[in-house]
Design brief:
The chain has 637 residues and is α/β, with parallel strands linked by helices. Helices cover 34% and strands 18% of the residues. Among the domains are: 47 residues, no CATH class; 208 residues; 98 residues, no CATH class. Helix 18 links the parallel strand 18 and strand 19. Helix 3 crosses helix 5, helix 7 packs parallel to helix 8 and helix 11 packs parallel to helix 12. It comes from Sistotremastrum niveocremeum HHB9708.
């Protein structure tokens, strides 16, 4: 569009002020009129007289917009902006930074124009679509990379690999291209690199191997590719690393992490090999040539997420990672090899200890969350190591980081769905590796099972259960520095209350699976703070627990419970046994009906056992409630 054309636009008066549509509301009419008035005002601006720096800003913003739309628009849209004004065209042509982003799949003539206009500035080389299937196009792209290797600052390649793989290692054309044009050269100015394979399946048997020599590289994204661990160049400035959509394993990734001392953010998404693939895939992929790493020194690490590693890989990473005090580390979707149920408790317990032990000394709080998936016997176990100081409200408080572990499809429930999900944890606590812990939080996050068409009864909740009092006590005895204990979402915590009572002490004289300990050692002598959130208990057993703690000189200083479980008389008894008593409303709205069901079921069972009519609606007398508590206490012991 010429300057005369611009004048025509500025003299455009096809605007009727006060236009109002009777079908539109007053707000809509006002906004429309305001928009039209602003349009008229903008057209009065002498566009052709704008200074060059404004023209340059307009051009840069316009170009950036079109670049962000590369996935949705075929053309770049240069004709639109170049036709607006002759001075704007001149500014665009003479601004080198506008021409520094070059696509490898452009026609050669267009690419040469951009290259000339860039005038030696660092280049951002990319692909708008993909390359790979056209041999001539691939050769031209590789030639351009080789000719400008000294000025490339950013490299983004979208590749469409052939569907046919070569020996399970990837496309022959892609492998050849990466080797000839990427792996054999040094990129002295390359700061950002990303490689995407748009034609590949989500997870290959193995990812492509690629070699990059870029000493100032800061960001690296690899899709269906992995850097060759036997031929790694150091990356002293690399801060961001993302690897996804491939099958890899810890021994293949750890050498890369070892050459990135400045790494801050790292995300690795892999998939466990199928069952018909040998677990020791490194034996035939690298033939024993993988470097042996003794330690991972990543002091700047902030976030590390590795999804899909097996538990042995998690052990290796946590054992080597020694100096990352402020990192948030997570291992979602860690698969546990599914042994038979009769063999699972032992191996899982041993592996759990090997996972927790290397890093647990860096934290003082352990959170354990058990989730029953899809109302079945399968469970998802989550463990978090963190610091109690992280909850500090102080401005400028520096978090100490955390470690999140998630073990999916662990069949730690028995066939009838009534197993003890915390058995593996409490069976290894007597080994003494967690004696420093100050806080323990046990959570049951099992959702309510929806009612199926075949079920006549309403939705129910298949909750987890706490281990036996004897096993709980055997574990708590080796937490001498514990000061805070939280339980959330449990349908019955009586086993825990009993474990801290005198009967619980007496019951451990040989009934805890042969775990040796001193029967005169009181559990958790520093523990004064208890929180039972959305967790149910028998009031009489709670009172006996509080009386026992007071009798041995360890009076509870803080007790938080969910309301609706205590009447006024019982509240007064509890308040006399603790320094600070708090009743909170239920966080889970289902807790109220759980309380009613739980109390009613116990009442019916006890009433029936004592010869009382089981179906009566009359509430139990206080004496009957006391007998109920004592009977239940006797049963759980």
């Amino acid at each position: 569009m010429t300057e005369s054309g611009t004048e025509t636009l500025r003299n455009d008066t096809h605007v009727v002020e006060g236009t109002h549509d009777s079908r539109s509301g007053p707000d809509e009419a006002d906004s429309t009129a305001s928009l039209l008035l602003r349009r008229k005002h903008n057209l009065d601006i002498p566009f052709g007289r704008l200074p060059d720096d404004i023209f340059e800003e307009i051009a840069i913003h316009y170009v950036d917009f079109w670049r962000s739309m590369e996935r949705h628009i075929e053309a770049f849209g240069w004709r639109d902006i170049m036709a607006v004004n002759s001075r704007l065209r001149s500014v665009i042509i003479e601004t080198p930074s506008i021409w520094t982003t070059i696509s490898l799949d452009w026609p050669t003539e267009l690419r040469d124009i951009f290259h000339t206009r860039a005038k030696g500035l660092p280049l951002n080389v990319r692909t708008d679509k993909y390359i790979g299937l056209n041999e001539h196009q691939s050769q031209m792209a590789g030639k351009f990379l080789s000719q400008n290797i000294g000025t490339i600052s950013s490299l983004v390649l979208n590749w469409h690999a052939d569907m046919e793989l070569e020996g399970g290692t990837g496309s022959p054309k892609l492998s050849t291209f990466l080797k000839q044009h990427i792996g054999t050269h040094s990129f002295p100015r390359l700061k950002h690199a990303a490689f995407f394979d748009e034609g590949a399946q989500k997870y290959r048997v193995f990812g492509h191997t690629i070699t990059i020599n870029a000493p100032v590289l800061e960001t690296l994204v690899l899709e269906t590719m992995v850097l060759k661990p036997t031929k790694l160049s150091p990356f002293p400035r690399l801060t961001n690393l993302e690897i996804r959509n491939l099958i890899t394993f810890a021994d293949e990734i750890i050498p890369l992490l070892a050459v990135c001392p400045a790494l801050e953010f790292c995300s690795i998404e892999t998939e466990d090999p199928s069952e018909d693939i040998d677990d020791n895939i490194n034996l035939f992929r690298w033939d024993g040539r993988l470097p042996r790493i003794q330690i991972l020194h990543l002091p700047a690490l902030k976030v590390l997420t590795i999804a899909g590693f097996r538990i042995l890989g998690i052990m290796t990473v946590l054992r080597l990672l020694q100096n990352s005090p402020h990192a948030e580390i997570s291992f979602p979707g860690t698969r546990w090899v599914e042994y038979e149920e009769s063999e699972l408790d032992g191996p899982f317990s041993d592996s759990l200890q090997e996972v927790l032990q290397p890093q647990i000394r860096n934290f003082d709080q352990l959170v354990v969350d058990q989730v029953n998936q899809s109302c079945s016997s399968w469970r998802e176990s989550k463990f978090r190591l963190c610091s109690m100081e992280d909850s500090s409200p102080d401005i400028g408080h520096l978090k100490r980081g955390r470690i999140d572990l998630e073990f999916s499809k662990n069949r730690i429930y028995k066939e009838d769905g009534e197993g003890d999900p915390l058995v593996p944890l409490f069976s290894i606590l007597p080994d003494g590796f967690a004696t420093h812990l100050s806080s323990l939080h046990l959570i049951d996050s099992t959702p309510e099972c929806p009612k199926s068409n075949k079920q006549k009864r309403r939705p129910h909740r298949r909750s987890a259960t706490l281990p036996s009092p004897a096993l709980l006590l055997s574990g708590f005895r080796y937490l001498p520095n514990l000061t805070i204990l939280r339980l959330s979402g449990w349908k019955n915590i009586d086993n825990l209350l009993v474990a801290f009572g005198s009967k619980g002490l007496e019951s451990t004289s040989g009934s805890d699976g042969g775990v040796p300990h001193d029967r005169h050692l009181l559990p958790c002598p520093s523990l004064r703070h208890f929180e039972f959130q959305d967790s149910q208990f028998t009031p009489g057993i709670l009172i006996q627990f509080l009386q026992e703690r007071q009798r041995v000189g360890m009076k509870v200083s803080m007790l938080k419970v969910t309301g609706s479980l205590l009447d006024e008389r019982l509240r007064s008894i509890v308040r006399a046994l603790v320094l600070d008593f708090v009743e909170e409303p239920p966080h889970d709205m289902n807790i109220c009906k759980w309380c009613v069901e739980y109390t009613s079921s116990l009442a019916v069972e006890t009433a029936g056992a004592r010869g009382v009519t089981a179906g009566r609606d009359m509430p139990l007398r206080k004496s009957e409630q006391e007998m109920l508590w004592l009977s239940y206490r006797h049963l759980v012991l």
